[in-house]
Amino acid sequence: MALGASQRLHDGVAAVETMTRFALAVLALASGVYTYLGARSILDGSPTAVFFAALIYSASVSVGIYAFWSYMARFYPHVTTRTGRAGMLFVMAIGAAMIMAMSSWLNAAALAGSAAVEQHLSETVEDYTTDLDRAYQNALSVQGLLPDIQRAGERFAQLAGVERQSGSLTGTTGSGSVVQLLSQMSAQMKGLENGINASREQVADLFAQGQKRLEAMRTLVSAPGAIEPRADQFSTEAVALTGIITSLAQTSVAPSIRRAADDLSLGFIAPVPDGAAPDLINRQNQVMETVKASVTSQSKALAKAADDILSRPPVVERRFVPLSSAAAVLEYAPDFIPAWAGAISIDLLPGVMVFILAVVHGAIRRQEEDMPFAERITAAELLQALEIQRAVSAMGAVTPATPPEPLGPVEAELEPGDIADEHNNITNLDLKSRRDRTHVAPGPDA
C-alpha cells in the first residue's frame, strides 16, 4: 500500500513538471509586462530610448524571476537537513525581497498608477481648498471691526451735531473747537470704515477667482483620459491658485487698522479753545479731555481687536509637487492594498509551488523510509547483489584463506537467508524460462 502511494506521488511530480515550468514562464512574463509599463512611466528621454530601456529592464526581471524560482523548485525540495533548509529559506527571503524591490512596485504602478496620481491630485485640491478658505476667513475677519468703527464714528458725528445746534456739551451753541474735534474724530472713523468696505470688495473678487481655479482643478481630477496631460494642466492651475491665496493674505487691512488705532491716541491733537469768556474756555477744555479719554478707549479696543486678527496663524504658501505613477503608489500605498497584493502575488506565487513540491517530496521520503528493505530495493540492485554473492562464493571455494571483499551498502543490509531465498526464486524463474523456451507447441498434423 505504501509503495503504491509513494509511486503515485512520484508519478504526480513527474506529471506536473511541465506544468510547473509553464506556470513559471507565464508568471515571469506577466511580471515583465507590468514591469515594462511601470518602468516606462518613470523614465525620461526620447520615446525610443524610453522604449528600449524599459524593454531591457523588464526582460531582465522576467529572466531573473524565472531563473530564481526554477532553482528553488529544483533544489529546495531535496534539501533534508535543518541547516540546509534554513539556508535555503534565507536565500529565498532575500530573493523575494529583491524581486519585490525591482518588480512588484512597478507592477503596482502599472495596475494602480493612474488612480494613485488622481488620489494625489484630489488630496491636493482639498489642501488648496482649506488654504483658500483660511485666507478668505483671515481677510474677512477685519469685517468684524466694522460695526464698532461705524458706531464710534456715528457717535462722534451725533455729538458734533448736538453741540452745534444746542450746545449740550459746553452750554454754548455754534461750531467751535469742540465741534471741530468731534467732526475730526468722526472723519477718521469714516476713513477706516471706507477702507474696510473697499477691502471687502477686493477680497470677494479674489475669493471668486480662487473658486473658479478650484473648480477647474476638480474637473481635471475626474476627467477621462491619460493622467499625464491632466497632471500638467493641474500644476498650472495650482500655481495660479497659489498666487490668489497670497494676494488674499496681502489684502488684509488689519495692519492698517492697528496703525490707525495707535494714531487715534498717540496722534491726538486737540484744537485750541476759541471761547470768548474764560468760563467757556474752561468748559471746552473739559469736553476735549472727555473726548480724548473716549478716543483713547476706542483706540485701545481697536488695537486689541486688530492684534487678535494679526495673531492668527498665516496661511503657509503651498507648493504643488507632481508625482509619477510609481511614486504615487508608494505615497498612497494604504489606499491601494488590492493592487499591491496582486502585484506581489504575481512575483511570489511560484514560492507556493516550491513549498508544494517540498511537502510532496518530504512525504515520499517518509513513506519510503517506513517500507521494509526488500520492498525498497530495485530488481537491478537485487541482481547486482546476487552476482556479488556468487563471486564471493566462488572466491571462497578456490582461496578460502583470502578474506572476502566488503559488501556494498545495498548488499550489506541483506540477510543471508534473504539472499538465499532470492537466489532460489531467481533459479526457479530461470529454470521455468528454459522450459518455456524448449517446449514446442504441437503442429496441426499431431
TrEMBL record:
<keyword id="KW-0812">Transmembrane</keyword>
<feature type="transmembrane region" description="Helical">
    <location>
        <begin position="339"/>
        <end position="364"/>
    </location>
</feature>
<feature type="transmembrane region" description="Helical">
    <location>
        <begin position="89"/>
        <end position="112"/>
    </location>
</feature>
<feature type="transmembrane region" description="Helical">
    <location>
        <begin position="12"/>
        <end position="37"/>
    </location>
</feature>
<dbReference type="InterPro" id="IPR036259">
    <property type="entry name" value="MFS_trans_sf"/>
</dbReference>
<feature type="transmembrane region" description="Helical">
    <location>
        <begin position="49"/>
        <end position="69"/>
    </location>
</feature>
<protein>
    <submittedName>
        <fullName>Uncharacterized protein</fullName>
    </submittedName>
</protein>
<keyword id="KW-0472">Membrane</keyword>
<keyword id="KW-1133">Transmembrane helix</keyword>
